[in-house]
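Progress narrative, work stream C.
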Amino acid sequence: MAQLLDAIQIETAPNPTTSIIWMHGLGADGNDFVPIVQELELPDVPIRFVFPHAPIQPVTINYGHRMRAWYDVLSSDFAERTDKDGVRASQQLIEALIAREKERGSPAGRIVLAGFSQGGAMALQTGLHHAERLAGVMALSTYVPIPESLDDEDCAANRDVPVFMAHGHYDQVIPFEYAAQSRDLLAAKGYSVEWHEYPMAHSVCMEEIAHIGAWLRRVLG
């Protein structure tokens, strides 16, 4: 099994049997989305939030500076930017977190993978390839990092998993059009995508948080 990443963990009540693993964006850390927990109007079930810290590594597009990153970003050209080996390495790290949540009492069907930007790309990559059906996949301001991997047979278990995608019209980090292409790709392959768009940049807004909370209440009951 891959190493277990350090993570911030928050339990909304004792003995949770539901887990949300939420990955941060490039250069941030697990603290980034902790404040949102109190704003989500969560379903009335005990939930464990896990906010892992990505490994520290050099990032090519940022002049090789070392920072927390789920994978290297090789270029500003989206056709060539993704370090696929790095994506797959972090996928195994997130799989290890899923395995721990199962051991601690959250079955796969009660686990949501969530993330923002790079973290959202990892939520899609890991969630859509996981061997057991998950509760849902939430991908904020992001894209499918390895589109061709969706043709793999091991995607079958989560073909019908609820997917929440959201993006800002004025995102200058991950252009809106690129995210929409990922949405269309998932829809064409039969995935059920709930799509939201907002007049914002590469960020999260209050309307989006309300939509996230409503979606979590639906998929977790």
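Work stream C, second folded protein:
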Amino acid sequence: MKSDVPKVLHPLCGRPMLRFVLDLAHSLHPEKTVAVLGHKQEQVKKIIPAWVKIVPQEKLLGTGDAVKKALAALAGFKGSVLILYGDIPLLKKESIDKLLKFHIQNQIDATILSAKLNKPAGYGRVLRDKYCAVRAIVEDADANAAEKDIKEINTGIICFNKEKLSGVLNRLKANNRKKEYYLTDIVGIFYKKGLLVDAIKIGDAKEALGINSRADLSRANAVMQERINCRLMDSGVTIVAPEHTFISYGTKIGRDTIIYPFTVIEPNVRIGKHCLIGPFAHLRENTVLEDDVTAGNFIETVRSKIGAKSFAKHLCYIGDTRVGKSVNIGAGSVTANFDGKKKNITRIEGGAFIGSNTVMVAPLKIGKKAITGAGSAVTKNVADKQIVVGVPARPLVKK
């Protein structure tokens, strides 16, 4: 990844990719979950939930060594062991359920989740004997010309009979080039011992996309974004141009809300029903929009709540702000929330009318049904129903 950040912490639609894998593991209701952490494990530990047993891999000696360490934490367990990878975040529960069912019902010793790719470069190939039984997996770098033409690839996801796996792990030998222990070599060892090995193909090869580069991350992000957008549209949200709309994982949006193109919604955002968002809106973290809110073109919000039936249609910055109901925020208005040391709160009470190009300097409170004149710089609190104008803004004195 050419990054200071551990690969599994890189965000996928606003969320560390590892969290998707942990969610998948949890959804399977396993008896026990073990996470083997290697590179920069202290950073990765911070997002591991309490129900996961953490096992450190101090020397990065490959997947075979990682599984050996994991099995040491499963002493006394008998049953099936499923191997998942922190950099394969797109797998669906249905695909893994199918793998587990096939493995258990047929009493297989090792079941590989494979996929068919027209361009399999970079992936290990599944080798079969003349009877179509799986006999080995060869890594792309070690494959000969004929093996490179094979379209069936190993996703890395394998389900094992735990006792059979424990019995042969010590037979793994370090790869001559990298001096690492490949878990995939276990497949050939199983085959030579006469143990039952099989593979089940995944329906959609995109699910098995492994992330090893920024380009891979971009492709995975597109797949996850499509899933998020489709789920929202299925729930009654209109997304005018899904391919040009970027919504983070976990965003909650009410029905009959319309999202216009080139809108970016960051994590921890909640949007009510019947809202109009965008185009070119940027809703940052901890934004809450209640029902019937309009957050229009070129608006940016962060750590703010906008009450029902309020409008901010054009060119606004709303930061650290609490907006009441039925407030009109005119074009070009901003809340100046940062004083050079800390972020401050602006409160705009219900029914207020904020004139175009108003600068509201926090900390500040604008009262109910108060009015600010266009181009005002409001530096002091405004009372209910009061009208202020000017730079700095002063109460309007009626003659």
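The two ends are 68 Å apart (CA to CA). No further action is required on this item.
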